[in-house]
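During the second year of the project, the team shifted from modelling isolated chains to modelling whole assemblies. The rationale, set out in the original proposal, was that interfaces cannot be judged from single-chain predictions alone. As a representative example for this report, we include one of the complexes processed in the last quarter. Its constituent sequences, exactly as entered into the pipeline, are reproduced here:
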Amino acid sequence: MLTLTCPYCGNAAEETELAPGGEAHLKRFGPGSSDEQFEDYLFARKNPKGVHFERWRHAYGCGKWFLAARDTVTLEVFGTYKAQTPNPTPEIVAAVQAKRPNWTPDWTSTPATTTSAESLTE
Amino acid sequence: MSDNGPFRLSRGGRLIDRAYQLPFRFDGRQMRGVQGDTIASALLANGQLMMGRSFKYHRPRGPVASGAEEPNALLGLGQGGRFEPNQRATTTPLVGGMVTTSQNCWPSLNFDIGAVNNKLYRFLPAGFYYKTFIHPRPAWKHLFEPIIRRSAGLGKAPTEGDLDTYEQAYGHADLVVVGGGIAGLTAALEAGRTGKTVTLLEQTPQFGGRTPTDHADGQARIDALLAELHALPNVTLRRNTMATGLYDHGYLIAREALADHDPNAGIPRQRLWRIRAGHVVVASGALERPLSFAGNDVPGVILASAVRDFVDLYGVAPGRNLVVVTNNDDAYRTALTALDAGLAVAAVIDARPTAQGALPEAVRARGVRVLTGSAVAGIKGGQAVEGVKLCAHSGSGDVTEVIAADCVAMSGGWSPVVHLWSHCGGKLSWSEDRAMFYPDLARPPTGADGAAMATPLGAAAGDLTVAEVTGAVAEQPLLPVWVMPVNATRKMKFKMWLDFQNDVKVSDVELAAQEGYQSVEHTKRYTTLGMATDQGKVSNINGLAVLSKALNQPIPATGTTTFRPPYTPLTLGTIGAEARGELFQPLRKTDIHGWHESNGAFFEPVGHWRRPYCYPKAGESHHDAVAREIRAVRASVGTLDASTLGKIIVKGPDAGKFLDMMYTGLMSTLPVGKCRYGLICNENGFLVDDGVAARLSEDTWLVHTTTGGADRMHAHMEDWLQCEWWDWKVYTANVTEQWSQVAVVGPKARVLLERLGGTIDLSAEALPFMGWAEGEIAGIPARIFRISFSGELSFEVAVPAKRGREFWEKLHEAGRDLGITPYGTEAMHIMRAEKGFIMIGDETDGTVIPQDLGMSWAISKKKPDYIGKRAQERSFMSSPERWKLVGLESVDGRVLPDGVYAVAEGSNANGQRNTQGRVTSTYMSPTLNRPIAMGLVLHGPNRMGEVLEFPVQGAETYKARIVDPVFYDKEGSRANG
Amino acid sequence: MAEALAKITELKDLGMVQIRADLVRAGDAIAAATGLAMPAANATVTDGARTLCWMSPDELLLVLPKAEAREATQALADALSTEHALVLDVSDMRAAFAIEGARAAQALAKLCPADIAAMPADGIRRTRAAQVACGIWRRGEGFVLIGFRSVGDYIGGLLRGAARPGTELDPR
Amino acid sequence: MSASPTNSTGKYSVFAIAREAMRLHSGWKRAWQSPEPKKKYKVVIIGAGGHGLATAYYLGKNHGITDIAIIEKGWLGGGNTGRNTTIIRSNYLQDPSAAIFDKALKLYEGLSQDLNYNVMFSPRGLLMLAQTEHEIRGYKRTVYANQLQGVATDWVSPQQIKEMLPIINIDGPRYPVLGGLYQARGGTARHDAVAWGYARACSAMGMDIIQNCEVTGVETANGQVKAVNTGKGRIECDKLAIVVAGHSSVVAEMAGFRLPIESVALQALVSEPIKPCCDLVIMANTVHGYLSQSDKGEMVIGGGTDGFNNYSQRGSWQHVEETVRALIETFPMLSRLKMLRQWGGIVDMTGDRSPILSSTPVGNIFVNCGWGTGGFKAIPGSGWAMAELVANGRPGPLAAEFGLNRFREGRFIDESVAAGVAH
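Output from the structure prediction step:
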């Protein structure tokens, strides 16, 4: 029975006040993407045993989606952060590495700008 | 002898009040206990030692323990709607008038036919059923399994619903202390003094644990602690509250007994606490272990601590002439307690070579024989102890002497109660010299922050005497004894019980090891060791020590089985709590719900809503009612409570762009004042919702969803807005509950609405089909949408929710002469099917895409993207081989069965008949007076006129012709009226 | 059933206006239009019969006498006409209950996982009451709980059950 | 060749028990051997649960391949095989599902004889309650589909249900029982015994079951599998089958590919044992709970899954509450029973909630996973189909539709359309 702190309202909410939303930081592939890209976007999941980044909605609270860094074995929570980030924030990465020194990010870089709507629909 | 029962001592009994006698019944016999008794102590006081039969061999069983770990003394308690099987007699406080019955025996406890199994024990070793009953094949199902099942189970099944109520509560504390013994109380006090919020949970009705019984000034020490604790406002002490499980992130479940078995209390029987603990102190004490000697299951062989408890707490003598068998000093306390109570102690049999601690010496000083290096070779007696056969502990069981006794107090040492520590991942270490698993502080259960979320304390941590706070005398080391005597013969091991309830013996565990069931989990499952209702509290450590020896490996290499919640069995009613009857689930009601109820509506559940299915009149079938409703709508006017339809406001500069992504069609081009039907798919391409959107203003749309889709679609929109297109300026609001919505439908709909008066021009010119207008009607603010799901002239009128019933009643008042008819969901379904409109959940089932439904007109070709578009381009979804929507016309006038499949030639590679379509909606049309149906058919739209076959077992094959799905008013003139 | 832990009263005359906007940008305009100061996160501001509730980082709820709701909605809409904002009269959308008495927090503790007793005097918490969503803030010696209108009967049943005589949470 | 494991352990029978009784059971041999691994095997199967062991068994029995190691991180049968609610049925809606589950059911019917190990298959009948109009539609559709699939199922009325199951309340105020989908051949089996029976038979065929042996890496070369690295050393293989349920993603990651899988916790609980009162397996999907009574007398209850990734084998408490209150609503007598034990398993949920039996991006690596909450009932059929896939390098008809390619093509096998859940 998890407790996560919503980064929007600051309340520590228990699992029954939250709705889980699966793996975080998926990049949407729409029309024009290859079959493989689209399949990966919809289905291929890291499903790691260990450090994981995932989506939650504070459904019975302020209604906001947020992201959590959590260990899927110990259920330790390294931190929560806002949903509007393409990759985990440097603060979250630091918080994870403080507890899991051997863990390294598997993304290459943080894009300078957030993904804009236009770039997806052009 | 006293009038409190023949085995009630004349004095002593710290928990009882002899002045208050409590009558109760056991197996039909009237007995009496006293205030403060448990059922077990009351039965013992009445000389009723035998309290049940074991599971497999139906052997006679008396209590072994005095608390929650008791495996044997399980009774049926209560009657009718308050009957409860498997009630633990040692922890159930006696209440006057209780009715108790013994279990697992027939015809009676003393003479049990099932005990024949006992005679066959040689043929029924662990796992025997895996090796037999194999041939002939039908015999298992029809003969052997029924026999096994009938003989299994302990208590009788309740037959009635529960007459008691239960409740739950949430708690929050910086620190939760589990256990109200001296260690727990001390910890609570220390934390309480620092200002932390502390909740202490004690499973029994008393604080103090073993201290008052085991230590000279124990009660005074406890009283002093309690006095200080009661003065701290930030400390809460709860008795009768069993911490049953510790879950992730410090979530602790506990059961508080409020009015257990006292039906007259008028309050909930139990309360389930769900406590979020900052940290948990596990001060849950330790449990004494039995010794494995031949005959250790005979009634009257009791744990030494339990004998002490019965004497000290309840003033009850489990026997008059005791033998104590031990491998440690602590059991000598039992001898002293017995002597103090005036009972005889024939001998103390100590497996250790010497016993020279303070306690043994005190016993010797009282003139009791202390036989060291000795062991029990066997017990004389069947249903009760008559004597104890002695042997040398180092030998193989040659009897040296027989001592007369009527009670054996045994002690094999103590095991810390580590359950809560272990529930959530806390690990254990093995102490060779103390012969116990104890919490490994280096590997605690961890919480949300990754740090330890629990700390063990006192006996639960392995500090059995807690000498620091109890002032206990020093004790000499125990001698680990797993089998007594050390070199017992194979045959003796067939008489040495490990698990008393499930009849698992030393021989069974050794057999499991011999056959390769070497993992402790294999052994447990193969022998059922520790799977009884006590969950192995008294048997597990002995069992895995025996297993380790059989495998010739150290005990920690064997390890323990996983500790699973609950610590003691938890009544299911407590878990369900208030969610029964009216409060089982929230029932959503529209404002008009009460009118439907008082006008005879038959409801159907739609999500948590109840919607009128139809309004049958007296003597009218549902089918007839639906037909009448449809005819009335098509002929004049009807009303549907459409309040449950989802209503979502979407507003902002980017709202149009956003809705173009949500819908397959274009919503951004919708003019203000107009409505447009749209389809919503998920990202996987499947059609998940539909409805009409209205453009309220330049930057505001009102989106309608299906009844079941309101919350889901709102969440769907917020998901995309917050997580993908967070820079789009769009706000959404789910205003479903703000509006009551009434569909006023039929050729007389306009006439009726105009009678109500108001500010809205309802003429076809001012308010054309797929238009909407805002104003007042019947004095109520309203929005009116010219949309139709029935094919008729139709106005959907939305008024502020709490004025819904007022508006509905005004309609019905005004429409009486028009024959205004309320209609339900079934009439709505049929009318839409007559028009060939799809219904989410009928034509769709989560595997259907809009293209399957001939709805390409609702999919914009101009848009570069919408949710689901890319998915629909995948090979299987764009394949021409998909089943497509058509109408189906029954050939012989029978209504096609719902969901039936159309067969194709031949079978597939798995021998299954090939199919080429299925029926998705099917009705007898009251309007057309013939069956109509829709279905999805391979190449359907290209096969008009073809006849398909739908075989149904036990009936003549149905046949239907492929036709256009629009059966009624193909031109659409009626809705445009 | 008489209630013992708290007195449960359904509040039928509350009006409510939902406001969604950038609360930093639009704060002054909202304050001016409602006549109330902007509440801090998870807090309410009350003046007389009006309470302004913080609901989320971009959402407020103005609670006021129902008769004033329409006018207040218009005033807010006007005040925010140049903002990207949403103002809606949602007075009919909710059921509201007053829970009053010395043990009001105990009754709520049976239904809500959030620690309502620990909430400050001007606090508001959106959480769950048994199986439905709710919002709770303090009013006087007790609390106001709002939920959706359609489940008003369910909420009322929950609250009355939680306040039953003999079910005090005090240790016994 | 004979698969009957008589040579190493002695044949099990009532006569053998009588013989052993005379000598206090001193003559029983090990049910399976525990050898050290060899350097190389033709086939290595990761995972000695029911599916892995059954795969090995049918590779031996049907395809004559016995040079097999089945390696297991913990103790055999210790994953979901040993922690499910033991339900067996084949009344699935979609053709591919019905085919493989009915194959499994047919094999279960003769499994005790085939393995010479009583797995206590108990075809007591399985009933899925319809408590909404939507469920009625879904289940009737399933009955029609089953009829064409050769799977006998029936639609039964509330009155028939009450007769079969006196403890049910068919007039529940919220969700009255409107009927049910009944499969007479459905039932339960003793879950541990299924694993043990297969293990004994595999061992008797000379296969090596290696317990307490964790896989730490998968070696590939030129896109082909070479070996696995384990806690007990490197083991070479020609073919590798990954059959590890909840841990599929972890092993796939070692082999360098990702699966459409999420691992979540599923919970179950049992009551204390009571005398027989429930002679059917019940599934109630509207209120989301299922129920049967074990041969020991315990009411075995299963419920929902968490919605987040979890490898802890513990679930969240609220699902226990949801399941219990739902079942009490339909079975009021349950209220006074007591929960004896609750536990969790890690189940692997695929993108369409149907299993995967497939070749993979790496040559000669095959995967069998994604059985979600419904794997136990499939064990023999799954093993049969997987053995075919591993032996031939391509799926037979039972596995043909369960390939990984379906996710790219959008060709899903979705059972939720009728049943709501797929337990």
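The longest helix of chain B spans residues 137-151. The two ends of chain B are 98 Å apart (CA to CA).
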